[in-house]
């Protein structure tokens, strides 16, 4: 189709604006990567922006060789996997049950859930509740409080209600019960929504530092983001090196002399952000469109 004169003028402008936006997002990532791969003392002189001037991997050897960081990484991976699977399971069951219009007290339950989205008891009552449940200073404080999200439930409920009733009715005529309808119809058709909600939930768990800072005092239970938050407020390298530093890296005294707190911080940031970024390409296809097109022909 032939473009108008205005469209010909607007097209390069839109491309330029979008390119600048992409650059503004990518540049900080490239800058941190360059600093993390550069000798700290050399990077402190300035002039390192998108490419390391004095390449080294000692920063990553220090970070990955630290026992505290490795353990916090395992805590983060564990809470992300269990929290995402558990959250999707609870959200799906709640939304599926409330999708039945004949469910007793359905309106009351939805109203109660809606109230929890608008109001909350505050941090102190929440802390007291976690203490009464025995969740403080345990791994499960990362899992149980976040299993149910009212927002995710309403999004999932709306999606399930959009599934053509003819599919459910056809399954019921074939003798399928609610569980079979859920497993064979609702879940297969809900894969795009489950993937989207799963990704948002996983990112939330991976990036959460708050719970580890306020609900956990045992350093062996802190996630990597809480460790990073502690590191960013540190004033020297002892927060990272300590007594668990990689001995092989320590032996390389000439390179260790060039380590700075900033270079270690950038390495920790990269180590904590790259894994979750790698998940996006595998789930991207589920954000394009659903799979309901053509499932019911008029």
Written description of the protein model:
This protein is mainly α and 298 residues long. The chain has a domain at 74-216: MetI-like (MetI-like fold). Helix content is 64%, strand content 0%. The chain has helices at residues 5-36, 40-43, 58-64, 67-98, 106-118, 123-132, 150-161, 165-173, 178-189, 191-207, 210-214, 224-232, 247-251, 253-256, 261-277, 280-283. The chain is globular. It holds the Pfam family BPD_transp_1. It comes from Cohnella thailandensis.
Brief summary:
Its main location: membrane. The protein contains 16 helices and no strands.
List keywords for this structure.
298 residues, mainly alpha, MetI-like fold, 16 helices, 64% helix, disordered C terminus, transport, MetI-like_sf, Carbohydrate ABC transporter permease, cell membrane
**How large is the count of helical segments?**
16
Helix content: 55-70%
Name the CATH superfamily assignment of the domain at 74-216.
MetI-like
Would you tell me the overall average pLDDT? 82
Taking the alpha carbons of the first and last residues, their distance comes to 31 Å
Q: Which class of the domain at 74-216 in CATH terms?
A: Mainly Alpha
Q: What structural class do the secondary elements suggest?
A: mainly alpha
| SSE topology string | HHHHHHHHHHHHHHHH
Based on the coordinates given, report the CATH architecture of the domain at 74-216.
Answer: Orthogonal Bundle
Q: What do we call the CATH topology of the domain at 74-216?
A: MetI-like fold
- Shape designation: globular
| Binned strand content | under 5%
Largest sheet: none
Based on CA atoms alone, the radius of gyration comes out at 25 Å
Given as residue ranges, the uncertain stretches (5+ residues, pLDDT < 50) are 289-298
Total beta-strand segments: 0
